[in-house]
Amino acid sequence: MGHQGRLAGTGGGATALVVRAADAEEVPLPHSGAFRLLADGGAAGVNRLSLGAGSAGAPNHFHTRSTELFYVLGGAADFLLGTEAVRVAEGGLVLVPPGLTHAFGAAPGGGAELLVVLTPGVERFGYFRTLGRIQHGLAPFEELLPHQDRYDVHFPGA
C-alpha cells in the first residue's frame, strides 16, 4: 500500500495507518485548490480535496469496483449523480455505489472542502498527480484514458 504515513500499533497482527497533516503529499490545483493524499489502496483510498469557488472536482465518471464517499467538511459542493443534480453543504455526505456515473465540483460563489474515501481502496495517488498536471495545463486529459482500469476511474464514452 502506498501511503504518506506510518503503520502503528499491533494487536492480533493488525496495524493502523497514521497520517499526520505535515506528512500528507499535496497536489496543487488551480483556483486555490489542492488534493491532500492520505491513504492509497488497501481497505480505503483517502484524500482531502480543497476546491476554489465554482471549481470542477471531477468530470462525469464511474467506478466498477469501489464505493466512493464524499463528506463535505466545509462550503458546498454540487454533485451530478446519474442524471440528478444535488447540492450538499457542510456536514452532508454523499455515498456513490459502483456503476453510478457521477461528477462534482464546488458550488458557485464559494469553495468546498471534501473528505473523499474510496473503498475498497485502489492505488490512485498517481491518478491525482496526473489530474493535477492536467488541471494546470501541463498534460492532456487523454493521458488518463489508458489507465481507467488501473485507477478504477472510467469515463463514459472514452
Note down, in words, how this protein is organized:
With 158 residues, the chain is mostly beta strands. Helix content is 9%, strand content 49%. It is built from two helices and twelve strands; from the N terminus they run ββββββββββββαα. Strands 1, 4, 5, 6, 7, 8, 9, 10, 11 and 12 form a ten-stranded antiparallel beta sheet that branches. A two-stranded antiparallel sheet has the order 2-3. Strand 2 and strand 3 form a beta hairpin. It is globular, with a radius of gyration of 15 Å. The two termini are 28 Å apart.
Question: What secondary-structure arrangement, pairings included, does this model have?
Answer:
Elements lengths: L1 E2 L2 E6 L2 E5 L6 E5 L3 E8 L4 E7 L4 E6 L5 E15 L2 E6 L3 E4 L5 E5 L5 E8 L5 H11 L12 H4 L7
Antiparallel strand pairs: 1-5, 2-3, 4-5, 5-6, 6-12, 7-11, 8-9, 8-10, 8-11, 8-12
Keywords:
158 residues, mainly beta, 10-stranded antiparallel sheet, two-stranded antiparallel ribbon, 2 helices, 9% helix, globular
Counting DSSP E segments of at least 2 residues, the number of strands comes to: 12
Overall pLDDT level: 90
Fraction of residues in helices?
Answer: under 10%
The N- and C-terminal alpha carbons lie at a distance of 28 Å
Count of separate DSSP helical elements: 2
Elements, N to C (H/E): EEEEEEEEEEEEHH
* Alpha-carbon Rg, integer: 15 Å
Quick take:
By secondary structure, the protein is mainly beta. The protein has two helices and twelve strands. It is globular, with a radius of gyration of 15 Å.
